[in-house]
Amino acid sequence: MAGGPAGTLCASDLAEGATVWDLVLRINVVEGATVWELVLRINVVEGPFLITVYALAAAVFIYLLGRGPGWSWVLTVIVVLIVGAIVGAGVLWVAVNVLDAFGGPVNEATWWWVPAAFAGFALALWNLWYSRWWRKLIAGLAFPIFAVAALLGINASYGLNPTLGSLFGISTVGVIDLDDPDATPSPDPTEPLYQTWKPPADMPAAGTIGTPSGGVPNTNSGFPARPAQLYLPPAALVQDAPRLPLVIMMMGQPGDPDASFIGQVLDDYAAKHQGLAPIALVVDQLGDPTTDPLCLDTDLGKVETYVMEDVVPWAKQHLDVLQGRQYTTVAGYSNGGQCAAYFGSKYPEVFGNILAVSPVEYAGAPRNDEVLGSVFRGDQAAYDAVKPANIMASKAPYPDTTAIFTVGANDATFGPGAQRLADAAQAAGMATTFFLVPDADHGVSGLLGGLDKGFEVLYPRLKLAAP
């Protein structure tokens, strides 16, 4: 028997070895999305799911507080909570400052959530002794509940993983089938695109995001990059689409090659500019989100070869983009911002524009002593040679490079380094913009605000808007 339409269950499906649960997950319930896809798309930075988790954690906490009457119990609870919070703060301090488990400093909210979670753990642990079985059961359940609440609270404070899927690095985007443009594209037009482009009536209102069909190969580098994501603006989704500028972007560490943030910003710009926006390819410079290969060719992986010899040639050949360096931008956020500053300063013949959002100042900056010893074998000169500011000084002047450096006004950790990079770019002759994003930190506010400012500067440069 042939398989039925989407959303129906067939005997042949069961015969092929699928479980009933597998079949439930395949049921199309909303616009072709399976139950599993809908679960992965649950918003975990605001809304009902997050509120429910917080409420459950609060209810369990209050229940555990009410174990015993009298001032002796009150004093015991206070001591238990304080000890738990101190232990939590100590564990976090070691993880951040000794083990560098997060690739750099963490935000203020993390310093509240982790001690709070450990205080809850201590309270739950205390409730396991000399208590009835149902209190023991709730105390046991409290550990994962408090841990999940803290994880979601920290994630919400950054805002960089808005869905359950993105929190666990599981992508729900589809595949974009690409029709290769001409092997030998005509010269880039001399007339500004904003003057010559006339959008058709059937142009979509928004762009689309997906993984490019076939993926981006790693033939030259062998670097185990995770799948890249591609943003195509409305103007790229019509018949006889114009060739558009290219942005190659990298995200932070830990993080995923997620095009949703740059896509959100570029959709806003496209809506104001007749559907015109750059084509953005967000690639993975990490391989393993817990590891920082420094955007270099080292024993940690050939990231530089991957970006320059795999990604760039593939993008220029397989995407319908303008070929000139003026129309080619390297962008990045945090760890990816350091990569953008590095590639843009070292390869000005390829990248005419740099957009570094909340960048790390140079490779391994938060742990430079460790990187100097383990990666560069103590060779300070070799380490200094790959720092973007030094590259800018050695290759100056840059007669036609536009560089934008942004950082959240409340991002005290990354602000000074971003300022030094901007100063170095200015001294090297780049047309430089340094921008403090108002009321922003190192999370999503700094990312979106930085991208917005960056494209405000770049749109005239890319001939997508009038000067």
Provide an overview of this structure.
It is a single chain. The chain has 467 residues and is of the alpha/beta class. It folds into 3 domains: 11-40, no CATH class; 48-158, no CATH class; 171-461, Rossmann fold. Helix content is 45%, strand content 12%. The protein is built from 17 helices and 13 strands. The strands form 3 sheets. It has a 9-stranded mixed beta sheet, with helices on both faces. A two-stranded antiparallel ribbon has the order 1-2. Helix 16 links the parallel strand 12 and strand 13 (431-437). The N and C termini lie far apart (63 Å). The relative contact order is 0.08.
Strand and helix layout:
Layout: H1 11-15, H2 20-26, E1 28-30, E2 33-34, H3 35-40, H4 48-65, H5 70-97, H6 108-127, H7 133-158, H8 164-167, E3 174-176, H9 193-196, E4 208-212, E5 229-232, E6 246-250, H10 260-272, E7 279-283, E8 297-298, E9 301-302, H11 303-318, E10 328-333, H12 335-346, E11 353-357, H13 368-374, H14 380-385, H15 388-395, E12 402-408, H16 415-427, E13 431-437, H17 444-461
Parallel strand pairs: 3-4, 6-7, 6-10, 10-11, 11-12, 12-13
Antiparallel strand pairs: 1-2, 4-5, 5-7, 8-9
Helix pairs in contact: 4-7, 5-6, 6-7, 10-17, 12-15, 15-16
